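Researcher: Let's do a round of design. I'm pasting the structure tokens now; please hold your answer until I've finished.
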């Protein structure tokens, strides 16, 4: 079987998607990163290898996400792409008419504006957690319930409770105040969902022309209360695509298939055996110019494999063999 593999490594979760030569999803893996992207990539490789046929031919591998360069070096990826491109390509694969993509993950959120199948604008929130999944996780923990219970209880809300959602700290303070006033828990929880949606639209979506069809993807799209809150706020249908939680990985796989259309061309992929190789990272501050960039390094068995992270390509151009 000819397979194209996409790997999306984020701050909270790591996703894998394996597509066949017809771009059909045949296997996917969703793991929590737990602050260790190297281990999560290796664990994901072991898991997806166990789900693929023994005669699988990996025709191409692409990485995306915040740790795409690190993951790309580990697997020796054929292609490294940013999250915006990967999510847009995957969305258009399933919903060609999409004009707006709402993507909310654990630590960041994005909006992608598409017209005539082309990305014309995007926005990202990587500073404040109030418009991300971690905001909901934190509030669920504060209420001593799981995130699944959080979603279910929010759907039973019967009256509006406005929660200040501009900041996670203020939201928690306002939530406590509403509890002390005697509001029902279900109404408070749905108020938190609405606060996340307002924060997203007022920050990430600020100045963007949000037109339907609107597609909502990412792990937070599992939360039906957030979907409901978006539809109420935007006053239009919000579409949840198939495999919404691994769309970045699917997009990466689609892109590498486009890059290497011939299955016999050969991939740079080092093989699933790399899941057993020990790696470690280090970093240093470059003093070559006033930017003082932090340069990341990947090592294995005492050998420097790669460097990245600078605003220029000074360290990427440095021959590893000379180190």
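Researcher: That's everything. Go ahead.
Model: Designed sequence:
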């Amino acid at each position: 079987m000819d397979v194209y593999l996409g790997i999306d490594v984020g701050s909270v979760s790591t996703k894998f998607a394996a597509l066949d030569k017809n771009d059909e999803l045949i296997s996917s893996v969703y793991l929590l990163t737990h602050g260790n992207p190297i281990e999560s990539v290796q664990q994901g490789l072991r898991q997806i290898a166990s789900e693929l046929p023994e005669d699988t031919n990996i025709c191409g591998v692409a990485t995306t996400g915040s740790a795409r360069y690190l993951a790309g070096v580990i697997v020796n990826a054929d292609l490294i792409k940013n999250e915006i491109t990967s999510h847009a390509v995957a969305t258009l694969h399933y919903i060609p008419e999409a004009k707006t993509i709402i993507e909310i993950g654990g630590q960041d959120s994005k909006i992608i504006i598409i017209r005539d199948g082309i990305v014309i604008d995007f926005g990202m929130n990587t500073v404040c957690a109030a418009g991300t999944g971690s905001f909901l996780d934190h509030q669920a923990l504060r209420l001593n319930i799981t995130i699944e219970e959080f979603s279910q209880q929010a759907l039973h809300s019967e009256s509006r409770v406005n929660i200040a959602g501009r900041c996670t700290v203020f939201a928690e303070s306002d939530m406590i105040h509403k509890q002390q006033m005697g509001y029902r828990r279900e109404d408070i929880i749905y108020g938190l969902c609405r606060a996340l949606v307002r924060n997203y639209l007022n920050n990430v979506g600020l100045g963007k022309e949000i037109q339907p069809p609107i597609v909502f993807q990412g792990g937070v799209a599992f939360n039906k209360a957030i979907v409901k809150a978006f539809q109420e706020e935007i006053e239009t249908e919000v579409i949840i695509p198939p495999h919404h939680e691994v769309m970045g990985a699917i997009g990466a796989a689609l892109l590498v298939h486009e890059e290497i259309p011939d299955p016999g061309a050969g991939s740079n992929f080092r093989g699933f055996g790399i899941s057993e190789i020990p790696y470690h990272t280090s970093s240093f501050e470059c003093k070559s110019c006033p930017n003082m960039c932090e340069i990341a390094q990947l090592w294995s068995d005492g050998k420097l494999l790669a460097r990245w992270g600078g605003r220029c390509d000074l360290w990427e151009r440095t021959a590893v063999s000379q180190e």
